[in-house]
């Protein structure tokens, strides 16, 4: 017989059990936190790689913020504290122009300017008289060493002038009709490319130009100023550029901070995904003894908060220290002194706080995925099947397309569209990383066994591989964007801003630059009461100059050289007493002003020769038979050929040849042989263009100037600052490759550490050391290939959208830099993975859970 037990008594309280009681309440949460902390302490070595990823990401973001804020030139290098600058030529010595400006505008600071000829060079050195403690110009001067000039016989020079004139503190130089003693080294801290010699205020005897610095309420007020003695040569104001510069700076800070957070999040996701997989058995065990999904998630969230806190603190400290140490180097790159404390501190602190939040959020995603794994599967330790990639791909394509459209519609002036477009394009391309990982795994079907295993492992652990590829893509994409844009800007610059010559070329002029007369003075004046005709340079002088050119070419290890010729009308008559020597044929533009007609000088052309065409790889067949002038300068309009200073003008037919150089002192405008015959001109030697494979050094330039000065001829080299766009290309490519390699090294380390069990199995099965190294190298190389391709494609996608209305702007890709990103990066990663791959010390050793 069956006896039934009486039913249990009813509860004494009518309160229903709380939700906290069901989940274990506070004791359960405390136990989970303790367990998470013990696991963190136990696995601190494994946590170092994840921590290093976060530290590098935060530090890179901090340094990037500093670079963005300080990369732009300040107007203080040209205006000082003033908002208006008026330049006057030939002001005389009476001070009437300065007095008139002070009477009209009030407080005005004057900077007097003259020049010092440089033996053997067509480019003189600027001699400047300025008050170093002036009301407006003080930011334009800084004493580096020695002391400032105080007397009539003292001068201070910049480093560049000291190198060109071969003087230092204590030396003497001839300038302004007297001997001056160098007493110090100075610089323009807001423009390090500003080369000048400085004398005390009022100690310039015969200034050739005058710069007036002042504050005006209206920009037009300065433009309407008419100097009583000199000639108004230029007027400029800072009022228009200041707000735009500040707006661009704020936009750049916001973009860098946002992209930095994305970068931090991607690296954190990769690290915590590996950590979650590594702890899968442990998490399955606590779930088996009653832990809820919330408890499982809390384990990884607590870990993410701890690692994020330490990573944000260490990364910010490392970034600030790196910024302080890189300050002098970065100053030389951007061309102005940088205050190491000029960081956007609010953005740095906000970035550290957001980095902590980003790490916690990044740990939530793998925590969510692990909490949904069945207990039995978790205890087995097998990886969960990867999710379908088509969802990510569809979303990525849609978001990238949206970003593309927003960038096209921004028209470069809609801030909201610009920010949204850049972020959408970036996120959209990053969402394609899982698809790229899956595709490269499918391509490995016929690869060797070791490579096939490595690539299939990437697809097997798709979450961590996708995050690693996305982080590398972001690093490469930023570098590629800067590089491609800098190359396009270089190619599209048709103005004088491109400079007179590239840094690896020099021109040896026989009698100065024909378009800007300078040099030793082969010219003479005709005798009174007599007239004469122009003459070609003496053969002996030409032969002597050729020998000097050969010596200079040998000294600088010239790659190639070409002789340049100009055109002279030997039949024209020079009136008695006229100066001879500026007899070259020139190009002029007809002008008309207030009913008067005249001509405006354009340039002095050189002559088309077979050697010049060969030098620039221009087939002679591309020249039009009816052309009188060929040039790379677009938009010249109607041009007349002037056969000489006392010759005639005749209309010329112009043909634009894009293959000719755009540099102002290079042979960018040439007279054809047809023009010589038509206008009765004769080609005579004018100079020699020398090109080297590498930029010319200061020692080579000094030696060339000395040789030219001894022979009574001159050289011309690049007078503009170094090609900052080329430097930007090289630096951005190098930094992008280094960051990508750092990301790959740490993520490959994470991936290989997680698959250590598989590696032991292969070793026990007889796999050789070559196979094990190939596994690591193939993993690193594959991630680098995907990062390089996706990053470069992302850069081109964004730039095409940005230049949608003129896509031809991108017609000149930077091939060396792109090869470094797409091919060089995977090659270095593969070699690094091969070298870093090693044999496990103990095959049977397996860490206990």
Task: Detail the topology: elements first, then pairings.
Layout: H1 19-22, H2 25-42, H3 44-70, H4 76-79, E1 84-89, H5 96-105, E2 108-116, E3 125-129, E4 142-146, E5 154-157, H6 159-165, E6 172-175, E7 178-187, E8 196-199, E9 209-214, H7 219-223, E10 231-237, H8 241-278, H9 280-288, H10 293-334, H11 345-371, H12 375-380, H13 390-410, H14 415-430, H15 433-442, H16 449-460, H17 462-492, E11 505-509, H18 539-555, E12 560-568, E13 586-593, E14 596-603, E15 606-607, H19 610-615, E16 629-631, E17 639-642, E18 649-652, E19 654-656, E20 669-671, H20 673-679, E21 682-691, H21 698-711, E22 714-716, H22 724-754, H23 756-764, H24 769-802, H25 815-836
Parallel strand pairs: 3-8, 5-7, 15-20, 16-19
Antiparallel strand pairs: 1-9, 1-10, 2-3, 2-9, 4-7, 5-8, 6-7, 11-21, 11-22, 12-21, 13-14, 13-17, 16-20, 17-18
Helix pairs in contact: 2-10, 3-8, 3-10, 3-11, 3-22, 8-11, 8-14, 8-17, 8-22, 10-11, 13-14, 13-24, 14-24, 15-16, 15-17, 15-24, 16-17, 16-24, 17-22, 17-24, 18-21, 22-24, 22-25, 24-25
